[in-house]
Amino acid sequence: MSECDLVVLRDADAVAAEAACRLRDAACRAIEAEGRFLLGLAGGTTPARLYELLAGGGWNEQLPWERTLIFWSDERCVPPAHPDSNFGLAERILLRHVDVPPRQVHRMRGELGAVAGAAAYTETLDTEVGPAGLDLVLLGVGADGHTASLFPGTSAGDGDSQRHRRAAPAAAPDGSPRITLTLRELNAACEVLFLVTGEGKREVMATICGPGNSTSPGLPAGRVRPARPPTWLIDRPAAAGLRS
Ligand code: 6PG
Questions:
Q1: Three-class HEC string of 86-128
Q2: Structure pTM?
Q3: Whose CA is nearest to atom 11 of ligand 1?
Q4: 167-224 tens-digit pLDDT
Q5: How far apart are CA 73 and CA 86, in angstroms?
Q6: Burial 77-97, CB ≥16 within 10 A → b, else e
Q7: Residue having the nearest C-alpha atom to atom 4 of ligand 1
Q8: DSSP label of 200
Q9: Inter-axis angle of helices 12-34 and 48-55, to 10 degrees?
Q10: Residues 6+ apart with CB under 8 A from 22
Q11: Ligand 1 center to residue 152 CA distance, Å?
């Protein structure tokens, strides 16, 4: 078991609001320390509420977008305009509405394919991030316990090759090719924030979360263990199966 910070919130909107505040605080810390904020966006649909919140309601002024560099936890090997693209979702809901300079948005180029796209992203991380990790990575969890595109039962994403040590080729259970940050890269992040909402995540959260504030390493999401224990923002429906 490993320590984590489990925060149960009323509903998905409360999860988005809490995540926005924590994202702002992480940005302030990073810019004070390094003059820039290296943010990794999650894939999937859960972050959409957070993206909508950040795109409106005065958040544009609260976040230092002009000093923020945007990265992704993973991507499907589709063109950026494809409805399944994680970049496309964030671009439509958030990035076109805030003042982040386009040159600071570093999407995974899924159109290159998983192997070449992962190698290219490893180079992008070396160039744009340097040897340290990202300041904050947002992650979701699949009902099978995957996170980013690190799926149960595969070693893809372990970052065991030099060419793919920071981003690696992967495949979803249906075989569709993916690019993912490696577990090594996720664990190098200063901070990891999981966003988990909905009844559909009840069972997997009960499996991942052990007694007290701890997670088990049996599933990929439970193996994300950066130096600073990850924070899990979970709404009540997803937390319904947690042991007290
Ligand atoms: C992806 C994601 C993936 C996602 C989970 C949860 O590209 O699919 O990176 O890890 O976070 O599958 O997805 P939902 O938020 O849609 O439930």
A1: HHHHHHHHCHHHCCCCHHHECCCCHHHCHHHHHHHHHHHHHHH
A2: 0.96
A3: 140
A4: 999 999 999 999 999 999 999 999 999 999 999 999 999 999 877 777 777 899 999 9
A5: 9
A6: bbeeeeeebbbbbbbbbbbeb
A7: 44
A8: G
A9: 60
A10: 193, 231, 233
A11: 14
